[in-house]
Amino acid sequence: ENNITRPRGYKVSFHYNSRVEDMHFGKTHPMKPWRLTLTKHLVLGFGLHHAMDTYQAVAAGKDQIRAFHDSDYVDFLSEVAPETFEELCKIPRFYAHTPPRHENDTVELGPFNLSTSPGADCPVFDGMSTYLFLYTGATLHATQKLLTGQSDIAINWSGGLHHAHKSEASGFCYINDIVLSILDLLRVHARVLYIDIDVHHGDGVEEAFQRQPRVMTLSYHRYGPYDETGHKFFPGTGDISDIGLRGTVGEHFALNVPIPSGIDDRQYSYLFESITSRTIEAFNPSCIVLQCGADSLGGDRLGQFNINIKQHGDCVSFVKKFRLPLLLLGGGGYTARNVARAWCHETALATNNTLPDAIPMHIVPRPEAFSGRVHGDGKLYPSFQRLHLNDCKDGELEAMVKQVDW
Ligand code: ZLM
Ligand code: CA
Ligand code: ZN
Fold this sequence. Notes:
Layout (H helix, E strand, L loop, with lengths): L11 E5 L17 H12 L7 E4 L5 H4 L5 H9 L5 H6 L1 H4 L32 H20 L5 E4 L20 H9 L6 E5 L6 H6 L6 E8 L31 E6 L5 H19 L3 E5 L17 H12 L5 E4 L6 H15 L56
The chain binds ligand ZLM, calcium ion (CA) and zinc ion.
């Protein structure tokens, strides 16, 4: 199929469990696990599984998650479901974690920033525990493969949930699989570099290691002053002056690259390559974790950047060239067809393959073909019949947002 070959001289592993696809955050919630279905079908359709070792992820154990997260929070996550939420909220050790209410709150928040209100960022939904423990299990197994040297590059597109805090869900993230992975890597590696190209600031990972000089966090993200509606782009942190906790040994081991809306390929590539190479040179890590959030692509439902799949992939290639053990994770990405095209392309780059632009008709994902349920909006996008690495917006590349004056 398409002359897909295994990479020469190194090994790639792919970690996934299709059960994550059955989950629904809510009807209009931007996070669509369906994007992972599309990604899987492109990866399999192009035959990229022949170039890697593929592993079916098993759920992480509660004790593994307690390496970072609060024990009560882990208990809550493992027991919570829409039916049990209200009762669990009344248990004192959980109730104690309910944030204070603000007057103009539109959604009612329960313990740990979780909620059953439909407008919540972190809703409690059916099958949620299964979903959380599976994406975490996939990341932890990928990490093990790197630690044992059985893989040189390990991939988990269902992971990369960078906003989760020790005892609080945030921004669609409940368990911080990245922090858990880095904690494991630190058992063997002297210095771990974390790079985050999601359009949002990787605040959860940065915060977890703000006193840790053996972990350098580097996030590229949309950041700026308040917008017309009086809000900051989520999560509102990641200023250039934010460099790790001052007065601790972790100071200078966080880097933030705040970026205005509308940044294009050339501008992004200049920033990414100059800053990333200087960081690797100076920090000298022995392994790298790269969060490949695809909401930095042009045309993303939540993002405000204007970069193409080709450029997004070039970031992966650039990091790969340093030949260090590399963990590739997903993250954000809210225009499903572009997310799938990007992560499939990046799977090809990881395995040293080049994909033809045309997606053969027999592998164009047909929504109606899966489990009798209509996922996404149920439409077959015309643009999805080609990879279109240089066209995230189907022909119109001007930013949806105001182009800033550079
Ligand atoms: N409201 N429904 C990126 C995480 C971004 C915080 C403003 C909730 C949404 C968004 C939820 C169905 C990653 C904020 C937003 C509305 C407080 C955010 C539910 C639409 C919906 O239609 C929606 C009714 C929802 C949430 C939009 N939330 C857009 N942006 C951000 C979180 C996560 O990509 O970095 C990694 C995976 N939250 O701006 C509010 C302040 C909650
Ligand atoms: Ca980022
Ligand atoms: Zn994001």
